[in-house]
Amino acid sequence: MNITNLVSLSRLLVPQERVALSASTFSTFFLPAFVSYFAMGVLVQRQHTAMIRVALLPIALLCACRAGSTLDFSLGIPNYRCFNHGLVLAMFTLSMRSTAWAFATKPYKRNALQPNKISNSDTLSSSTNQFVDDTQLSTAIWNAWDLSVNLRGIGWDWPQGLHIPKNNHGTKSTSEFLLSTLAKILFYALAFDAASKAVRDFSPETFGSVEGGTIFDASLPPLRRYTRSTVVTILSGWTAYFVIELEYQIHAIASVLLFRQAPSQWPPLFDAPWLSTSLTSLWGHRWHQMFRECFISVGTRPFSYLFGRTGGVMGAFLISGALHYFGLKAMGRGGHPVVVFGFFIMQGVGLILEGVWKRFTGVRVDGCLGLLWTWLWVVFWASFMVDAWARVGLVGSTCFPDHYRPTVLLAYFLKRYLNLW
What we know:
By secondary structure, this protein is mainly α. The protein has twelve helices and four strands. Strands 1-2 form a two-stranded parallel sheet. Helix 6 (174-200) runs antiparallel to helix 7 (222-258).
């Protein structure tokens, strides 16, 4: 096979341009990615499937790559390019999980859950569970629906040392859980819309638009320039927090309604990350842990084997950097790899510095000084990554049509029906 044929084959497998979303392109590109991923989820629950999983892995990775690089979820609307960003994040996640499942050393087992009991434990471990030898195929297929969206492994035996934030609202019935989750969806939708609009309003003609632009305005004096960029960075962080919570609550209510999952499978996602008194506590348990097992399996373990404990720390952050880089690249204007990888590498460096501090002083980073250190380190390096978001138009993208934004609808309701002004 000559070079021309290889290039033609590569373009057939992974087209160079995105194609509009339709029933045909969905079945051609997205469905194979999900089916191969789902098949891996079934196989990882069964014994004696290691060879099949390893053989299926390249197919699953290729299908995920094709879907992430080919489909256009923006519907051709520049404001909605952020949906391509979300698509690539999803496909990269499928790839990480498929890789972890391919090399799993023992079958995954699902715990028996108490339907309305919310877990308040600090960590999950699989060390005390006892299970039957193998999972029936029909059961494995049903369980794979849960496994495919259950990123933290709630109700499964495979999470190791996973921190679960405590639920402060006690035990809830399914109906109470659905009502409270619906209220959270409304709140986070409003908060996300308000925060993202506040960021765009800083510069509607540059980074507040899909054309993009830098958050560092060279026309301003240094003090104003960097104060402004710091505020934009912090607001962008809150925007990310709100949209992640919004997506999580939507998945929670859909999973409980459609797949009969228990409310106990949807404990809180974050543990007040703004109160972190060290980078270790921030990234170790206060920030969401949805990708914890992926980063450990694909990043920490292989890098620890090659470079020791320090390599394991950096390996997890490198994989996180890759996830965010490819997501940003989906905006169609480059991924700014030095900036994006730089942010995550420096978070790993910060964790290592905390370890060095503890080793030499005997005191763990904590308290008010630890809080200040964490905020300064994260915000400083995050400002460069937020600038990359702004340059490619991610900050200026919107998820709602202008007239149907949650805050606009709320203002219309208050004005029309409550006569507040």
